[in-house]
Input
Amino acid sequence: MVRLVRSFLALEAGAFLAAALVHSGVLLHGHEHVKAATAETAISLVLGAALVATALAPGGSRAAGLWAQGFALVGTLVGLFTIAVGVGPRTAPDLVFHAAILALLGAGFARLWRRPGGAPRGATP
Output
């Protein structure tokens, strides 16, 4: 379970870091958006901190993963809302990123939500 949590967190943190670097103008010019870069950096840091927590306390990795991915899911939904109301960047790559990261975060959260061994939450052994 620890390896699964770390894999999801590393991939997600890397994706948000890359998005932040794009919106900062480091990886690509012409897609700069300071508020998006700030939000993506914050989400990347939370996911990265949870990744570090899994190394420091492997027994709490599932909880760290759930909390960090929950935070990232809420942040991503806020980002989609800002796109919908016209505040955030509204490019096709932004929409593709949001769709892909929502799918990844949703898959990670759903997988971690299930108890180890595959039993659904609340199921009795």
Remarks:
- Residues 2-113 form one domain.
- The chain has four helices and no strands.
- Residues 61-85 form the longest helix (25 residues).
